[in-house]
Structures are given as C-alpha cells and as structure tokens.
Amino acid sequence: MKMFKLLTSLVVVFLGANLTAQVVLDMTLSETSSNHKIIPHDANSPLPDTITVKGYIINHKKGICGDICAGGTIQLELSGKVEGYPHSYMYIVTGCTTGETNPEIISLLVTKFTGEEKECYYKDVVEVINSKAIPYYKTSLLDTEKTVIK
C-alpha cells in the first residue's frame, strides 16, 4: 500500500511537471509565431532548383536553438541579377542561429523549399518573413552559419 501511494505521488508530480512544461512551451512558441506562411515551390515552379546567391540580409528571424528546434528565415537583398530568378529579394529558410546578424555581403547556396523537408529546422519555423507570395528557398546548416557573426 505504501508503494502504491509513493507511485501515485510520483505520477502526479510527473504529470504536473509535464503539463507545466507544455503550457510554457506553447506560450513561448505562440509569442513568437508569425501570421505569415512560408510559400513553398510546387512541382511546376519555373525558378531554378539550386542557386548561389550573394547579397545583404535586410531582415532576419533567427529561430530557436537548444532543446527546441525551430528554423529561422531571412530576407536577402540580392547584390545583382541572378539568372532565372526575376526578383531583387530572396526569402530563405535557415537553421536556428545565435549571435548578431552578419552586416557584410554573404554568398549562400540555396535550393527550393518544397515543404516536404524532414529536418526539424525546416519543419518548424516560428517566425516567417512575409515574402509577398515569392516562394522560399532553403540553405544548409553550414551556410546558415554565414548569416551571423560569432
């Protein structure tokens, strides 16, 4: 009987901690969530599949690093024309980052974002920059590091 009471107490404490953590997590994510949606490329997108782009970051949402995995987004002002890409800005999903946004011109290898990606930082993005219906691209974790100063 004592064992049952002890186990019951432990279960109650565990459930209480889980519920508290879930509420805190939900509040944290909802505070940073965006009203905008990532526009993926569909199968008929005429834009290039892969591009190396150069430009300046003019808007940067860094995502969440740590126990929670959530990607970030950037708006890149292109430093020149890109063959097959008619826009002067590119919107890119990145891994999470910490540190100050890199003020220098950067070069990134990007590929079409389809929405079918499996990595947590592509699946969960809490802050989305309004791309005004321009489809998003994505960059690797390695290139994500170029977006910040350490």
CATH topology of the largest domain: OB fold (Dihydrolipoamide Acetyltransferase, E2P)
Q: Specify the number of helices.
A: 3
Query: What is the architecture of the largest domain at the second tier of CATH?
Result: Beta Barrel
Counting structural domains, the number is: 2
Please report the first level of CATH classification, the CATH class of the largest domain: Mainly Beta
Terminus-to-terminus distance: 57 Å
Uncertain residue ranges: 15-32
- Binned, the helix content reads 25-40%
Mean of pLDDT:
83
The H-and-E topology, N to C, reads as HEEEEEHEHE
Quick structural overview:
By secondary structure, the protein is of the alpha+beta class. It has helices at residues 2-32, 120-123, 141-144; strands at 50-61, 72-78, 89-94, 100-101, 106-112, 137-139, 148-149.
Keywords:
150 residues; alpha+beta; OB fold (Dihydrolipoamide Acetyltransferase, E2P); 2 domains; 5-stranded mixed beta barrel; two-stranded antiparallel sheet; 3 helices; 7 strands; 26% strand; globular
How are the SSEs placed, and which strands pair?
Blueprint: H1 2-32, E1 50-61, E2 72-78, E3 89-94, E4 100-101, E5 106-112, H2 120-123, E6 137-139, H3 141-144, E7 148-149
Parallel strand pairs: 3-6
Antiparallel strand pairs: 1-2, 1-5, 2-3, 4-7, 5-6
